[in-house]
Amino acid sequence: MIKKGLTYLFTIGLFFPLFFLFIFSIGRNWQFPAIFPKKNTLDNWSIILKGNSELNTSLTISLLLSSLVAITITLLSFITSKYIAQSKHRSFLILLCYLPYVLAPVILGVLLQFYFIYTDLAGTFAGVFLAQLIITYPFGIIIFNNFWTPLVFELEKLTFTLGANTNQTFKEVLFPLSRKVLALCFFQVFLISWFEYGLSNLIGIGNVKTLTLRVFQYINEANIFYAALASCLLIIPPGILIWINKRFLFKAETIV
Question: What is the pTM of this model?
Answer without folding.
Answer: 0.85
